[in-house]
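Hi support team,

I submitted a single chain yesterday and got back a structure, but I'm not sure I'm reading the C-alpha cell output correctly. Could someone confirm the output below corresponds to the sequence I sent? I've pasted both exactly as they appear in my results page.

Thanks,
R.
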Amino acid sequence: DTVSFNASDSRDPHGTISTYRWDFDGDGSFDLVTGQPVVTHTYARNGSVVPTVEVTDDEDSEWKFDVDDV
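Hi R., thanks for writing in. Yes, this is the structure output for that exact sequence:
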C-alpha cells in the first residue's frame, strides 16, 4: 500500500525548516531525506510500524516526531 505523509504543519519559531528526514519502517535509519514536507512511501507488506520524521532547521536544530495514523 502507498501511504502519504504530511509534515507541513511543522513550524520553527526561530528560523526556517530546511530538511525532513523520514524513517518509514521505524528501524532508526532514515529512508528519505528531502526538503519537502509531503512524501509518499509504498509498503511491500502489511504490518505495524512506527514511522518517524526528524525536522532540521536552518540553524541545525533538530526535532523528531512519531507519525500517527499509519
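A quick pointer for reading it: The chain has a mean pLDDT of 86. Let us know if anything else looks off.

Best,
Support desk
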